[in-house]
Structures are given as C-alpha cells and as structure tokens.
C-alpha cells in the first residue's frame, strides 16, 4: 500500500497551493482550476438569493477552516467481511482506512473504492476495468462542472480531499448494498468528500452512505454526490447525516437518469447546527423514473434547509418526492421542493409532498413547494402540511390505557413510519432506533 504525505492547508487563500500539490490527471486538475477561478469571481450565497433567503451564512469565517491532502489514497482492497455488503469504504478525517470489495464483483469489472486512488498517477493500474471507470468518472465530472451554481459549489470542486467511486458495468446486478462511512474527529476543519457513481446500461446497485463526527469539534462538511444512471439501469442511494451540534453540513447531489432507468434517493438528516442539502434529479430519457424521499428530525436550535428538484427533460417520465419529519425545541426546518417540466416533456407524471410535525411551540417549519411547467398534457401536483399532534388521537390512546408520554411517542413514531418504510431495508430498524432515541430525549428533557 502506498500513501501520500499529509499536508495541511489553511483557509481559502491556499487552495491554489493545494491543487498544485496533487498528483492527478491533467483533466482533474483542470476541473479544480476552473472551480478555483469561479470561486474567486463569486461571493458567498446571501439571503438575497431566493434559495438562501431563509438560511444566513454571513457570520461564517470560512478562512478559519483548514483542510488536508488525501491520506492513504491507495488503500489495499480486502475481501468482503461477511456483513452482507458488496463492498465497504471507510474514511477517517479524510484518510481511506479500509476498502472491501466482493471478489466475484471485481471479476465482473465492478470498481469500488477511493476516488483519490483511482486518480493517483502513481498507481500504475492499467487494467481494462480501471480505464473504463476512469473514463466514466471523467465524463461525469466534466459534465457536472460545466458551470458552478454558487461559491460553495465551486469551493467543493476545487478542494475535495477524499471520496469514493462506484462503477458498475453493463447488466451487472448486485443485490447486497455497498456502504460508505465518512467519520471526522477534527476541529476547525473542512471535510470535502466527493462521491461518484456510474451505472452502465442495465446495471443495478444500492449504496448506503453515512457522514458522522465526534461528539466535539467544529467541522464544515462540503460534499458533492454525482450519479449517472444509464438506460434501463437502477440505482438506490441512502445518505445519512449526523454530525455534532457544532458542525455545518453542505451537500449538493445530482442524478442524471436516462431512458427507462430508475433512481431512488433517501436522505436522513439528524445532525449539525446548520444544514443545507440539495438534490437534483434530471430525467433525461423517456420512461425514466425517480423517487426522492427524506426523513428529518431537528432538535435544540438546529437549522435544516432541505431542497429537492425534479427536472423533467424528456417525454413520458415519472417522479415522486416525499419528505417527512419532526421538529422540537427551537429548531427550524425549511423544505423547498420544485418540479420543473421542459417544453418537450409532455406526459409527465410528477408530485411532491412534505409533512412536518411540530412537537412544541418553539419549533418552526417552512414548506415551500413549487411548480415550473412549460408544456401541456402533464399531471403535476404538490402539497404540504405542518401541524402538531392531534389531541383527539392523543385522547383516544390515553382512553385505551396508554400513559400520556407513551401515547405521544407512539404518535410521533407512527407519523414518521410512513416515510421510514421507504428507506432501504438494511437501514430501517437502525433508523427506527435513531427516531426513538430523539423522541425519548425530547420527553426526558421535558421532565428535567
């Protein structure tokens, strides 16, 4: 196993030095330099921008956060460890500590592991699988970075310092999920993971992704997830964010979905003081199908701003978004959802739904669904609800012998179960435990 020297770069003024220190293909360095050029021309998003109107980042001193070069970027590939995973990639403070991949999948041309290792010019890997994955990654990242929507977006592509690639060749179907774990224990640090997924024609796979932090330490997570789902392929993505209350989470995801392909995203948001998540799903082929689901639970004085965009760019495609969550204490959750239909995208069938449960008077929620329809012969709808626990339901459970607190807990669990059951099967019980822990913490704190 080879590894790189770890170097620390401070603030936004050392981005150029960071880029020059990397051993990456010229095309990747060109992407970084274009991102840096865009970054230098832009200002940070402000509340004058419609998407950021309710999320103010003007108090951040982004120059106070340091970031590292990738460490252990060529970690050994081990055999799968019997936990019913097709592959596992673990990162600690940006260093790839472990990669596992099922041997039978490797023989079929599947590539899974550290993105830095794939791009490392010293690896000497000239296999057909490596070349195919590298070509696909280049195609997707160059497309994704044709323009930079805001300064955070450009900042990520200039500075990403660890990540994962998953490449599944044509007609390879994988039942067991892949898993990525990003862990950080740093303080005043930038963590900028990059996930790239390419599903070739007819391929099928599932990826479970989690980002966590130590109980203490101030970290900015600035992540990007780029997905390409080719004709008749299927990809399911689960993402879970649970950083400590001193951290900040920015994540921008995008999936390009081709003809007769399907994509399912499930986002679980529990952590960080400030969270700004966006996921765009682009339906670019006839017969495409997407599901965007989300579960969130804000507490203390967390700020969560979640946005989804369903873009219909082709005839006769379907999309559904369902985000549901609970808010307590002085937390504030914003959901922004948009269905966008192009002129050539007739016979679109799309809807989005957002439901939020407020658990006390100090909790706040804003729901902002929207439609942008540029053709006729479509079926599009949206809806949202924000409310408190129904007192009649609470009274009914109490009349059946349930104590007051137990009845409230049961109603919250039942409310969230409707979206929770849409998560990938391997994580459903785990999510139920997280929900229960947060509900119990709510009522434990009420008793103090």
Layout of helices and strands:
Elements: E1 8-10, H1 15-20, H2 26-41, E2 66-68, E3 77-78, E4 87-92, E5 95-101, H3 103-107, E6 111-114, H4 115-119, H5 128-144, H6 151-159, E7 162-168, E8 178-184, E9 189-191, E10 193-199, E11 204-213, E12 219-229, E13 234-242, E14 248-257, E15 262-269, E16 274-283, E17 289-298, E18 303-312, E19 318-327, E20 332-341, E21 349-358, E22 364-373, E23 379-387, H7 391-399, H8 404-420, H9 425-447
Parallel strand pairs: 3-5, 4-8, 7-10, 8-11, 9-12, 10-12, 11-13, 12-14, 13-15, 14-16, 15-17, 16-18, 17-19, 18-20, 19-21, 20-22, 21-23
Antiparallel strand pairs: 1-2, 4-5, 6-7
Helix pairs in contact: 2-6, 7-8, 8-9
Written description of the protein model:
- The structure is a single chain.
- With 448 residues, this protein is α/β, with parallel strands linked by helices.
- It has a domain at 8-284.
- It has 9 helices and 23 strands.
- It has helices spanning 15-20, 26-41, 103-107, 115-119, 128-144, 151-159, 391-399, 404-420, 425-447; strands at residues 8-10, 66-68, 77-78, 87-92, 95-101, 111-114, 162-168, 178-184, 189-191, 193-199, 204-213, 219-229, 234-242, 248-257, 262-269, 274-283, 289-298, 303-312, 318-327, 332-341, 349-358, 364-373, 379-387.
- The strands form 3 sheets. An 11-stranded mixed beta sheet has the order 3-5-4-8-11-13-15-17-19-21-23.
- α2 runs antiparallel to α6 (151-159), α7 packs across α8 and α8 (404-420) runs antiparallel to α9.
- The protein starts with 7 loop residues before the first strand and ends with a helix.
- Mean pLDDT is 91; it is low at 72-82 and 443-448.
């Amino acid at each position: 196993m080879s590894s790189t020297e770890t170097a620390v770069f401070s603030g936004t003024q050392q981005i150029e030095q960071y880029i020059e220190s990397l051993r990456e293909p010229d095309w990747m360095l060109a992407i970084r330099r274009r991102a840096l050029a865009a970054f230098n021309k832009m200002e940070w998003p402000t509340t004058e921008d419609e998407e950021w109107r309710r999320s103010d980042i003007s108090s951040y001193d982004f120059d106070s956060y340091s970031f590292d070069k990738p460490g252990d970027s060529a970690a050994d590939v081990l055999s799968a460890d019997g936990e019913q995973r097709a592959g596992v990639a673990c990162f600690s403070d940006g260093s790839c500590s472990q990669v596992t991949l099922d041997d039978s999948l490797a023989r079929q041309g599947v590539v899974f592991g550290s993105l830095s290792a794939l791009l490392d010019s010293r690896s000497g890997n000239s296999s057909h699988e490596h070349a195919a994955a590298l070509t696909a990654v280049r195609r997707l990242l160059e497309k994704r970075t044709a323009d930079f929507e805001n300064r955070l977006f450009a900042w990520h592509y200039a500075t990403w310092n660890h990540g994962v690639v998953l490449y599944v060749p044509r007609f390879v179907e994988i039942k067991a999920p892949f898993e990525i774990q990003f862990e950080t224990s740093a303080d005043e640090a930038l963590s900028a993971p990059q996930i790239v997924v390419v599903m070739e024609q007819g391929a099928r796979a599932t990826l479970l992704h989690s980002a966590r932090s130590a109980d203490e330490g101030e970290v900015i997570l600035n992540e990007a997830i780029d997905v390409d789902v080719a004709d008749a392929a299927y990809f399911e993505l689960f993402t879970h964010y649970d950083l400590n209350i001193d951290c900040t989470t920015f994540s921008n995801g995008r999936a390009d979905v081709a003809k007769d392909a399907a994509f399912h995203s499930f986002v679980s948001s529990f952590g960080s003081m400030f969270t700004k998540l966006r996921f765009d799903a682009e339906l670019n082929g006839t017969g495409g199908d997407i599901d965007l689901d989300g579960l969130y639970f804000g507490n203390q004085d967390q700020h969560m701003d979640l946005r989804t965009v369903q873009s219909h760019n082709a005839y006769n495609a379907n999309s559904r978004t369902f985000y549901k969550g609970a808010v307590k204490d002085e937390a504030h959750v914003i959901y922004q959802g948009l269905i966008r239909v192009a002129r050539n995208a007739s016979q679109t069938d799309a809807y989005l739904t957002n439901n939020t449960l407020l658990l006390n008077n100090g909790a706040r929620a804003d729901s902002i669904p929207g439609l942008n329809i540029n053709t006729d012969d479509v079926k599009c709808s949206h809806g949202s609800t924000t409310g408190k626990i129904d007192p009649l339901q609470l009274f009914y459970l109490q009349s059946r012998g349930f104590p007051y607190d137990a009845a409230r807990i049961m109603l919250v669990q039942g409310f969230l179960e409707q979206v929770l059951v849409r998560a990938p099967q391997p994580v459903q019980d785990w999510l139920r435990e997280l929900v229960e822990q947060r509900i119990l913490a709510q009522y434990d704190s009420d008793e103090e």
